[in-house]
Amino acid sequence: MSTVRRALWGDTYKSAVMKPPARMTYWYPRPLLITAGAVAAVFATSGQAAQVALWALAVAAVVLALVSSVEGLAMLMLVSAIDGISKGVLPGWFTLLLKDVVLWACLLRWLFLQLQGFRSEALRTRTALYLFLFSAWVLLETANVATGSALAALAGLRSWIGWLPVFFLAYDALRHRSQILPFLITMVLAAALVGLYGVIQQQIGYDHLLRISRNFEYVQRLGIVEGVYRSMSTLPHPGIFAHYMATMLPMALALGLASFLPVSVRAMSLAATVFIAAGAISSGGRLAAAAMLSTAVLVFLLARHARTVLSGAILLTILGYAALRLAAPQAVERISWLFEPTWTLNRILTPLSRGWQSALQHPLGVGVATGIGIGRAAGLLGGGATVSDIAAGVVEGEFGRAFRELGFPGGFLLIGLCLHALRAGVGALAATRPAEYRFLTAGLFAMVFSEILGLFV
Length: 457
Fold this sequence. Notes:
- By secondary structure, this protein is mainly alpha-helical.
- Helix content is 74%, strand content 1%.
- The longest helix is centred in the last third of the chain and has 34 residues, at 398-431.
- The relative contact order is 0.13.
């Protein structure tokens, strides 16, 4: 059976076999403290002082990425988690390229290790093949005649494959539980802080951001819908905030249920679960509630312990009540309204239908620079009106958008990549030893499932 698995999925399962080391740390303090310190400095100051704090964060992130693979990866995730703050304090090219620069620093270290004789396991996996095929097709689409300009094509290219190298960084850097577990705990801590601030933001509004910089005026447009505050926390949009919270929620819950962890770590994880869930609710996002429900069920079902399912259900009820108490009633009402079955089904199927109809007319796609992925780059690159005209038929859901921009080849490659990730996750769950560590693998699988759910809307 193991031979068949390796033939089908490469070495995906190696990192799932987790053996506890004699001693280990439970989090990586430097990335979290550096990022939290920079955000605190931004909130405590304004104008140029806030900009200096962000520049200092950028320098520290690059340095850490060059000296440590794991902490550099953590820094990349944390810098991405405060993208909304960066957009308000330093809009423009700095915000557009900050995450990219940190990613490039991580890749530079990864390439340096290859030259030093480090053997990359990620390059030998079946996942790498899917990523290369998808990337190759996206690259071909930059030559599509519908592309408005070369710079706009680069922006569209970045939106599709800019983050794919993270797989290689993470797979090669996080090879053992002594690395994986602290990384996940650090990410859960960060998500809890972001979620808590999201709850506070919904209660106090956005005036404190406007005192830092007038560039935060965009939050008034995006964060208030029909008189209801939709929190976006440190992210640039309530929907992105909801997606982030929904993705991190199952891992926080899995860590809280993992019996092999110290009581203090489990208690912290359960508290983080409340803050993350409350943050997701405060976003007023449909995706947040849907993903929370599905991933919570997945964590319990994949654990394969009846007692855990029962205790987990009770615990989830208590934590859910606490999260609802933290979130504003208006957000809860909005989510309840968004869960109207017909409306939700149309919200999922309409983008798919539009993308499919576009692919029928243009089987090879209409180009990567014609969709919503170019974002603010349209204005920064110039010729925004031209790009806007081309993007008139934009499709918001990622699967529908894939069929529109990348045609049938790109759309089916994206679906194949997602199905492969789910299959690999199921296999990793079955291969995890000892059995109690399946909580972590189940949490990781639920995170992937949540991300794929997000691609529909």
